[in-house]
C-alpha cells in the first residue's frame, strides 16, 4: 500500500530550501536513513526517514522550498506497524517514573504528617560550644562505638545520616560541616596492607631520592644558570614509589595502561627511577635541562621534546588537573561509544597544594563528580608550601581542599598522619590530641618541621596537659620521628588501594608531606625550599646519611650517582614489580592505525558556485561535516566539540543525527522531542556539548586529539568556538596541545574584527591568527570561499590523520552570508590555497597602471569590489590574490630566507610569496579582518613596495558596513588607499587619491582607530 512521508516538525526552519536529495525511486529505506538535506540561511540539516519501505515516488526536487507537513515521498511500507518515531521512545519510562514519583510523594506526605505531629512533642537544640552534659555525650558515643563494632561502618553511617535528617525535619539548624577531623580518613584497622618488601622498597626509594637530587646539583655545578628542583620530589617520593611498585599498570598488548599526570617539577624523580630501571644512563642524567644537543632531558614533562617518554605536559600549573579530568571523561566516552574496552584503566593526577589555587585546578571538579568519573584519582601533595612560602599559613589547606572536594561529590581520602601516630591517636581518650591537630594552622606545622623534637614537644604537645602527658614517655627523637602520612608507604598504599576500588565517584587523596623531606638545614620545610638547587658538601653528607645511601664521603663529594648492580636485589625487585605491572612508566607510544582521507571528490559540491545562494563559511563547514558524516570510514571518528554555541553555528542538526554524549543517556523527554533538531542525549552520543566552558572544551579536544597515543585510536576532533573565546581565552591550553602533539581541527567561528556585526569589543576577534602563529605546529587558515575551506580541510585530514603529521589546524570561519564562486579551473589553485595565496582575479583592461591587491577572509570581497571600482572609475588594473594564510606564507618565507643566508654560496631559493609576486606589476596593498601585523608578516619576503591595512584597535558594536568604514577596510577606503599608494609610488597623480578621499567622505584627520 502506498503511503506518504511528510516533512516533520523542523523547528524554526520554515520555507527552507532542499539542497540535496539523498535517495531515489526504488530505494529500500529504513528508519533514520537520511532522505534529503534542507538548508536555511544559517544551517543545514538532514531529514531522516521515520519509516521503512520502498520509495515509489519522490515529490521534491533540489531548490524546492519546504515547511512542516509538506510531502517528501510516497513509499510502500514493508510492514503495517506504526512508524517507529510515532511514540517517543522514552514515554513509557517517563510514565513509569511519574507514577513512582506520585507514590513517593504520598509516602512523603505521610512522613511529613508524622513529623508535624512529633514536632509538638520534641525539640532538638544544637548548642555550640561547651558540652553541657558529658555523661549524655558519652552514652551517645558509646552507642555509636557499639554499632560500629557490631554492624560495621555502613550501619553507623546510615544511623548518623538518619539522625541528621531527623534533626533537620525537627527544625534544628545544624551547622554545616564540610570537614571531617584532621586525621586520616582510613582508620589503622581498615588499612589494606601492602604485600611488598618494605625494606627493599625503602632502599630503592633512597637511591631514587639521591640520584634525583644529584642530577639537579650536578647540572647546576656545571652551569649555575640551569635551575631545577629538589624539594618537590623529596616531598613526593613515597607517593610516586608506592604507585610505581604496586598500582600503575603500563600499556602493553594486553592492556591499555593507566595514564599518569606527573607533577611537572617532580620530573627529576622520574628520571632517577628510569635510571635505575636502565632506561636512562648517566650521560643522559648529566644532560638534565640541556636539551639542545639530542638526548638531553627536559626540565619538565614535555612530550614534544621527549616523545617516547612523557605523555602529558603538566608544568603550567592548573592545566594538569583540568586535562586529567577531561581525559578521564574522554576515556569513558570512548568506552561508551564502543571504541575501547572497559578495562578498569585509571587516570592519576599528581598535583601540588599551591597549584590548587589556580582556578583551572578546581574549575572542573564538579564535572568529574557529575560524570561519576571513578576512573580518576587526584593525589594532592600537601607539603604546605608553594614557591614563596606557606600555602595557607593561617589556615589548613588539607581541610579546605577536603571541604571543596566533598562538597563537589568526590570520594576524599586524607592521608595526614603516619603509622607512628597510630598509637598516640588511639590513646587520645580525652580527644585533646585531635583537638590540637584541628587547631594548629599550617604555618605552625611547617615551622615545627623546620625545627626539632623538643620544639614540637613544647609548641604542639605542650598546649594541653593531657597531650603533654601523652608523649611524656617519648624522647625528643621519638617525637621527631612521628611521621606524616604522605611519607608513610603503608598509609599511602592503603589510600591507593581504597581509591582503586572506589565506584561511582572520582577520588582525591590529600596527602600531608614535608617539602624538602630529608634535606635537613639546607632546605627541609623552610620557605626557600622550592628554589634549592645547590647542596653544599655538608648537606649532601646529611642527605646520604638520612637515607642510608651506600656512598663513601669521597663519592658524595663528587656527587656520584648510585646504581646497584643489575643482579642486586634492589634492581631485580624494581624490575620485577614493573614487569608485573606490564612495563615501564612513563612511556609514550602509539599503535593507532591511520584514517584514510576521504576521496578527493567528496567535497566536489563545494567547488561549484553557490549561484544566487548566499551562505557563510560557517554554514559551508556544517555542509561539509554533514557530508563527511556519510563517509563510513571517517564518520565515527569525528568528535564535534561545542561550548554551548551549536545554534549560533547552525550545528543543531548534529544533535539528532549523531546525538550528544551523556554518560547516563537521556532520562527525560526533551521539550523539543518532536522536532528534527531535538536535543537528543545518548550514552553513545558523538557530540561533546560542553556547556559554557571553553577551557573544558579545549581539554576535551586535547584528549581526543591525543587519543592516538593514549588509546591507540586516531580520532578527528573538531572544536568549534567563538574565535574571540579561543586562543585569547585558552591560549596556554593551545600551547600544551602543541606540546602534546595534538592532531585535530580548531574552528574559530564568527571570526574577524568587522565580520561579527553588533557584538562589540569583547566579541570581535582581530588577532587570533597572530596567536595561532606563535604555536610552531599549528597550521592556520583564514579562507573566504567554500572551495578554499574544503581544500584546506581535506588536506588537514590527509596530513594529520592519514599521514600522522604532528600538527593541528586552526581555521577561521565567518557568519557573514555571501555567494561563493566556483573554484578557479587553474591547476595551481589547490596548491596556492594550501601554500597560502593564489591569484583569484585579474583586471587588465587598460594596461597602464597596476596594483597587486591581497585580501584575506571577508576582506577579500571588499578587495574585489575595490578592484572593480579602481578599474571602472580610475582605469587602474589589478591582480587580486586570495590569501588563505599569511601565517603559512610567513613560515615559508622565513625558512627560505634562512636557507639563503646560511648558504650564501648556493643557488638562491625563492619563497612562495616571491614566486607569486616578484614578476607582477605595481605595488602591493594587503588587507585582512585582522590587525595589520597579520598581513605585515610577509612584508620581508618581497622586494616590492608593500602596504598593509587591517582592523587594529578595539572592536565595537555596529553594522558590518560601519565597522569596515571605521577600521578603514571597506571597499571605499581600499580604493582611496590604493590610489594614494599609487600616487606615493609616483604612478599616478595624487589628485586622484584626494578626489577619492573627498568622494567617499573620508576624514583624513580622524585619529587612528587604535586610539578610539
Ligand atoms: C601557571 C604557572 N604559574 C607559575 C609557575 C611557577 N611555579 C613552579 S612551581 C611553583 C610552586 C608550586 O607549589 P606547589 O604546587 O605547592 O608544588 P610543590 O613544589 O610544593 O609540590 C610555581 C609558582 C608555573 N609553573 N605555572
Ligand atoms: Mg606545595
Can you characterise this structure?
The chain is α/β, with parallel strands linked by helices and 1012 residues long. 39% of the residues lie in helices and 13% in strands. The protein has 36 helices and 28 strands. The strands form seven sheets. Strands 18-15-19-20-22-21 form a six-stranded parallel beta sheet, with helices on both faces. The protein has a five-stranded parallel beta sheet with strand order 9-10-11-13-12, sandwiched between helices. A five-stranded mixed beta sheet has the order 24-26-25-27-28. A hairpin with a 4-residue loop joins strand 4 and strand 5. The longest helix has 31 residues. The chain is globular, with a radius of gyration of 34 Å. The N and C termini lie far apart (71 Å). The chain binds thiamine diphosphate and magnesium ion (MG). The site of magnesium ion (MG) has 7 residues, from loops.
List all distinct small molecules, including ions and cofactors, that are bound in this structure: thiamine diphosphate, magnesium ion
Strands, total number: 28
Shape: globular
Low-confidence segments: 80-91, 105-128
The average pLDDT value, as a whole number, equals 92
Amino acid at each position: 500500500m502506498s503511503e506518504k512521508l511528510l516533512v516533520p516538525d523542523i523547528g524554526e526552519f520554515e520555507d527552507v530550501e532542499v539542497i540535496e536529495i539523498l535517495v531515489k525511486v526504488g530505494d529500500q529505506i529504513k528508519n533514520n536513513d537520511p532522505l534529503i538535506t534542507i538548508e536555511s540561511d544559517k544551517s543545514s540539516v538532514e531529514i531522516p526517514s521515520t519509516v521503512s519501505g520502498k520509495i515509489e515516488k519522490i515529490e521534491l526536487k533540489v531548490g524546492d522550498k519546504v515547511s512542516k507537513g509538506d510531502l517528501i515521498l510516497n513509499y510502500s511500507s514493508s510492514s503495517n506497524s506504526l512508524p517507529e518515531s510515532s511514540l517517543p521512545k522514552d514515554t513509557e519510562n517517563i510514565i513509569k517514573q511519574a507514577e513512582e514519583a506520585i507514590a513517593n510523594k504520598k509516602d512523603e506526605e505521610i512522613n511529613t504528617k508524622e513529623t508535624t505531629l512529633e514536632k509538638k512533642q520534641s525539640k532538638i537544640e544544637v548548642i555550640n560550644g561547651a558540652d553541657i552534659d558529658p555523661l549524655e555525650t558519652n552514652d551517645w558515643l558509646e552507642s555509636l562505638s557499639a554499632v560500629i563494632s557490631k554492624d560495621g561502618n555502613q550501619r553507623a553511617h546510615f544511623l548518623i545520616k538518619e539522625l541528621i535528617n531527623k534533626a533537620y525535619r525537627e527544625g534544628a539548624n545544624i551547622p554545616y560541616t564540610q570537614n571531617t577531623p584532621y586525621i586520616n580518613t582510613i582508620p589503622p584497622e581498615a588499612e589494606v596492607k601492602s604485600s611488598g618488601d618494605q625494606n627493599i622498597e625503602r632502599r630503592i626509594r633512597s637511591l631514587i631520592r639521591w640520584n634525583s637530587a644529584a642530577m639537579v646539583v650536578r647540572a647546576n655545578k656545571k652551569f649555575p644558570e640551569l635551575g631545577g628542583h629538589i624539594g618537590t620530589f623529596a616531598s613526593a617520593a613515597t607517593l610516586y614509589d608506592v604507585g610505581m611498585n604496586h598500582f600503575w599498570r603500563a600499556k602493553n598488548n594486553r592492556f591499555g595502561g593507566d595514564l599518569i599526570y606527573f607533577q611537572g617539577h617532580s620530573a627529576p624523580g622520574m628520571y632517577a627511577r628510569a635510571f635505575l630501571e636502565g632506561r636512562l644512563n648517566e650521560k643522559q642524567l648529566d644532560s638534565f635541562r640541556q636539551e639542545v644537543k639530542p638526548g638531553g632531558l627536559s626540565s619538565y614533562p614535555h612530550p614534544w621534546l621527549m616523545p617516547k617518554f612523557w605523555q602529558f605536559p603538566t608544568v603550567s600549573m592548573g592545566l594538569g588537573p583540568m586535562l586529567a579530568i577531561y581525559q578521564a571523561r574522554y576515556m569513558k566516552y570512548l568506552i561508551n561509544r564502543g571504541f575501547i574496552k572497559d578495562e578498569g584503566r585509571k587516570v592519576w593526577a599528581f598535583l601540588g597544594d599551591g597549584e590548587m589555587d589556580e582556578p583551572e585546578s578546581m574549575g572542573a571538579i564538579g564535572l568529574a563528580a557529575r560524570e561519576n568519573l571513578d576512573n580518576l584519582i587526584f593525589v594532592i601533595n600537601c607539603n604546605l608550601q608553594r614557591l614563596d612560602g606557606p600555602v595557607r599559613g593561617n589556615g589548613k589547606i588539607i581541610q579546605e581542599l577536603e571541604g571543596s572536594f566533598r562538597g563537589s561529590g568526590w570520594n576524599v581520602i586524607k592521608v595526614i598522619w603516619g603509622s607512628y601516630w597510630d598509637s598516640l591517636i588511639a590513646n587520645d581518650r580525652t580527644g585533646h590530641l585531635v583537638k590540637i591537630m584541628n587547631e594548629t594552622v599550617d604555618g605552625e606545622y611547617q615551622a615545627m618541621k623546620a625545627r626539632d623534637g623538643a620544639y614540637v614537644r613544647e609548641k604542639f604537645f605542650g598546649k594541653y596537659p593531657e597531650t603533654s602527658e601523652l608523649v611524656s614517655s617519648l624522647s625528643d627523637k621519638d617525637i621527631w620521628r612521628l611521621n606524616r602520612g604522605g611519607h608513610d608507604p603503608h598509609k599511602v598504599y592503603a589510600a591507593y588501594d581504597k581509591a582503586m576500588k572506589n565506584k561511582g565517584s572520582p577520588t582525591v587523596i590529600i596527602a600531608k608531606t614535608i617539602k624538602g623531606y630529608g634535606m635537613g638545614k639546607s632546605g627541609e620545610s623552610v620557605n626557600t625550599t622550592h628554589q634549592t638547587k645547590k647542596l653544599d658538601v655538608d648537606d649532601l653528607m646529611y642527605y646520604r646519611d638520612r637515607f642510608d645511601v651506600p656512598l663513601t664521603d669521597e663519592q658524595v663529594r663528587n656527587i656520584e650517582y648510585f646504581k646497584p648492580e643489575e643482579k642486586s636485589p634492589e634492581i631485580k625487585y624494581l624490575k620485577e614489580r614493573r614487569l608485573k605491572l606490564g612495563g615501564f612508566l612513563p612511556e609514550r607510544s602509539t599503535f593507532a592505525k591511520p584514517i584514510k582521507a576521504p576521496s578527493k571528490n567528496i567535497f566536489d559540491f563545494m567547488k561549484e558556485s553557490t549561484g544566487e545562494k548566499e551562505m557563510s563559511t560557517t554554514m559551508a563547514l556544517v555542509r561539509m561535516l554533514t557530508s563527511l558524516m556519510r563517509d563510513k570510514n571517517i564518520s565515527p571518528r569525528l568528535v564535534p566539540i561545542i561550548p554551548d554555541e551549536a545554534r549560533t553555528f547552525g550545528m543543531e542538526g548534529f544533535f539528532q543525527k549523531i546525538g550528544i554524549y551523556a554518560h547516563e543517556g537521556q532520562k527525560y523527554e526533551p521539550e523539543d522531542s518532536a522536532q528534527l533538531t531535538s536535543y537528543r542525549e545518548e550514552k553513545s552520543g558523538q557530540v561533546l556539548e560542553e556547556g559554557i566552558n571553553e577551557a573544558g572544551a579545549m581539554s576535551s579536544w586535547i584528549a581526543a586529539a591525543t587519543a592516538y597515543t593514549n588509546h591507540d585510536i586516531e580520532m578527528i576532533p573538531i572544536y568549534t568556538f567563538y574565535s574571540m573565546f579561543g586562543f585569547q581565552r585558552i591560549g596556554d591550553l593551545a600551547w600544551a596541545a602543541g606540546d602534546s602533539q595534538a592532531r585535530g581541527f580548531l574552528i574559530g567561528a564568527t571570526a574577524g574584527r568587522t565580520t561579527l556585526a553588533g557584538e562589540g569589543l569583547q566579541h570581535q576577534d582581530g588577532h587570533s591568527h597572530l596567536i595561532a602563529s606563535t604555536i610552531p605546529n599549528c597550521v592556520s587558515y583564514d579562507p573566504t570561499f567554500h572551495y578554499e575551506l574544503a581544500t584546506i580541510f581535506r588536506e588537514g585530514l590527509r596530513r594529520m590523520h592519514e599521514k600522522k603529521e604532528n600538527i593541528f589546524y586552526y581555521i577561521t570561519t565567518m557568519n557573514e552570508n555571501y555567494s561563493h564562486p566556483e573554484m578557479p579551473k587553474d591547476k595551481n589553485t589547490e596548491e596556492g590555497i594550501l601554500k597560502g595565496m593564489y591569484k583569484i582575479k585579474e583586471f587588465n583592461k587598460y594596461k597602464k597602471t597596476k596594483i597587486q591587491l591581497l585580501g584575506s577572509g571577508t576582506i577579500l570581497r571588499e578587495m574585489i569590489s575595490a578592484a572593480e571600482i579602481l578599474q571602472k572609475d580610475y582605469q587602474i588594473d589589478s591582480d587580486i590574490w586570495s590569501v588563505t594564510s599569511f601565517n603559512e606564507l610567513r613560515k615559508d618565507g622565513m625558512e627560505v630566507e634562512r636557507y639563503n643566508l646560511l648558504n650564501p654560496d648556493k643557488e638562491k631559493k625563492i619563497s612562495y610569496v616571491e614566486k607569486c609576486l616578484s614578476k607582477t606589476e605595481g605595488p602591493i596593498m594587503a588587507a585582512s579582518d585582522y590587525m595589520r601585523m597579520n598581513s605585515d608578516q610577509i612584508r620581508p619576503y618581497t622586494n616590492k613596495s608593500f602596504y598593509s591595512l587591517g582592523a587594529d584597535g578595539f572592536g565595537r558594536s555596529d553594522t558590518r558596513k560601519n565597522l569596515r568604514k571605521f577600521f578603514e577596510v571597506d571597499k571605499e577606503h581600499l580604493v582611496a588607499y590604493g590610489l594614494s599608494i599609487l600616487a606615493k609610488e609616483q604612478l599616478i597623480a595624487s589628485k586622484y587619491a584626494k578626489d577619492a578621499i573627498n568622494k567617499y567622505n573620508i576624514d583624513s584627520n580622524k585619529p587612528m582607530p587604535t586610539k578610539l
